[in-house]
Write a structure and sequence with these properties.
Number of helices: 15
Strand order of the largest sheet: 11-12-13-14-15
Number of domains: 3
CATH superfamily of the largest domain: ANL, N-terminal domain
Shape: globular
Largest sheet: 5 strands, mixed
Helix content: 25-40%
CATH class of the largest domain: Alpha Beta
Oligomer: single chain
Structural class: alpha/beta
Mean pLDDT: 91
């Protein structure tokens, strides 16, 4: 099924039902459907045809959602770009994607024009003034110009740019069939229905944030879209006000909520589930969430843009397997292989491999990197995704994240998994964030360095951190260096950027 056909179905069957809540305003499925038809007509007038890329650089807003559906309805491929991206990266994405059209805010006009001018074929630019979309007579006249192109589910739907090993982002290609398979699977295990109201606090330029909108039309539920997460307590109040049932987040979101947002006095009884992905949530943070919201099921999940979602842990087993990310999502298979491609036995660490209809088409214009990621599977003619992530599996078949292949390193002859040390640091109530990397060292080859951010108003000392680590870690896992700092660098998606830490450390040395 084409993804935008889910929107059509919702608009036909429940035209007045709320699809989106932004800044207190409710948008119905019919409004979103009509407004995106009108914008699709504008895109077609600017030359967008089947398969053309439509880059959209807007913050979380009704306009961003409408641009998604308009891009697909016009036959294009939606290319979301974080509105905070710097000029050089923006210029690279515009040129690399070969975007036919770019939607951008007038407030960033100089930056956008500078970046677009560097492209071999500069895109047509549609400027957004930040105003709410209209459904008046002018819009209806534009609808008369719209002509739906013929598409099939093997056509590209999304190109989402992620960090690349070369320093340049890679465009992950996802077809309508890929996305439809993934959102159907997600809705099935989360048991989403049209009665749900799901928070959208993550950027729509981020796969996990975008999935809330995509699953919304699949199940017919409303999305409460937040422009930012600058005021976490205000977000919690809106969760209570709008009777939100689903709270998706990444570790940074939950760390901020636990640190800055008092839950007392808020009626959060509407919450039906909490989900985490993007990176493993520290067991200490999971336990605190369980204490604060004991009745709310928490789904520990694992995903990556190349297949959107990989696994989830049944919340009923969270206490027994708090460090696990569970098993494959429906209609997908995950397994672990060694360096020779043979399947690992329980307890053995290897690379995670994914097979299923949700696996990406490949990396846009990156045949060599595509060949490294998509390799022959057990079934002749089938390609499976090699994730680059190290995992192990227990006797029950549950998965445990060990680390990115690039993150795991050897120190004093022992293999070090940074996540183990980070989880120990998070056990201290005064620790808000922690990150561990390998630092070049003349004696040990690579030495362990830990960066720690204290909670607001709390005091941490290196001595206290070392005492705690010594009580919980083997000698070879003890950090040689500990730096207490006010913040840690983050990626556009809110993840701690270890690459930036390595670069900063390298420059400092």
């Amino acid at each position: 099924m084409l993804i935008h056909e889910h929107l059509r179905r919702c608009a036909a069957n429940h035209p007045d039902k709320t699809a989106l809540i932004v800044d207190g305003r409710h948008y119905s499925f019919r409004e979103i459907d009509l407004s995106s038809d009108a914008l699709a007509a504008d895109l077609q007038e600017r030359g967008v045809q089947r398969g053309d890329r439509v880059a959209v650089m807007l913050e979380n807003s009704a306009e961003m959602v409408i641009a998604l559906w308009a891009s697909l309805k016009a036959g294009g491929v939606f290319v979301p770009i974080n509105h905070t991206v710097k000029v050089d990266k923006l210029a690279f994405i515009i040129a690399d994607s070969g975007a036919k059209c770019l939607l951008a805010p007038t407030s960033l006009q100089n930056q956008v024009l500078n970046a677009a001018a560097r492209a071999p074929e500069p895109p047509a630019i549609l400027w957004s003034d930040g105003q709410a979309p209209r459904t008046d007579e002018a819009v209806r006249r534009r609808l008369e110009r719209f002509r739906a192109p013929r598409l099939i589910d093997q056509d590209l739907c999304l190109i989402i740019y992620t960090s690349g090993s070369t320093g340049y982002p890679k465009g992950v290609m996802l077809t309508h069939a890929n996305v439809d398979s993934n959102i159907g699977s997600i809705c099935s295990y989360l048991r989403n229905t049209a009665d749900d109201v799901v928070l959208g606090v993550l950027p729509l330029s981020f796969n996990y944030g975008l999935l809330q909108v995509l699953t919304g039309v699949r199940a017919g539920f409303a999305v409460l879209l937040e422009r930012s997460f600058a005021y976490p307590y205000e977000t919690l109040k809106r969760i209570a006000q709008h009777r939100v049932t689903g709270l998706p987040g990444v570790p940074t979101v939950f760390a901020i909520l636990l640190q800055y947002a008092p839950f007392d006095g808020l009626d959060l009884s509407s919450l039906r589930y909490i989900t985490n992905t993007g990176a493993a949530l520290a067991p200490a943070h999971l336990r605190r969430l369980r204490q604060i919201l004991p009745q709310i099921p928490i789904y520990s999940m694992y995903g990556l843009t190349e297949c959107q979602r990989v696994s989830f842990l049944d919340p009923a087993r969270l206490d027994a397997k708090i460090t696990s990310v569970g098993r494959s999502i429906p209609n997908s298979e995950a397994y672990i292989v060694d360096a020779r491609g043979r399947r690992c036995v329980p307890g053995e660490v290897g690379e995670l491999v994914i097979r299923g209809s949700g696996v990406m088409r490949g990396y846009w214009r990156r045949p060599e990197e595509t060949a490294k990621a998509l390799r022959d599977g057990d079934i002749p003619g089938e390609k499976v995704l090699y994730t680059g992530d190290l995992f192990c599996m227990d006797e029950d078949g549950d998965l445990y994240f060990v680390g990115r292949r690039d993150d795991v390193f050897k120190c004093k002859g022992e293999k070090i998994s940074p996540i183990e040390i980070e989880n120990v640091l998070y056990e201290l109530d005064d620790v808000a964030e922690a990150a561990v990397i390998g630092l070049p060292d003349d004696i040990d080859g690579l030495a362990i360095k830990a960066y720690v951010v204290p909670c607001a108003g709390r005091q941490l000392t290196e001595r206290a951190l070392r005492r705690h680590c010594a009580s919980r870690l083997e000698p070879w896992m003890m950090p040689k260096f500990i730096e207490i700092c006010p913040t840690l660098p983050k990626s556009d998606t809110g993840k701690i950027s270890k690459g930036s830490l390595r670069a900063i450390t390298g420059m400092a040395n």
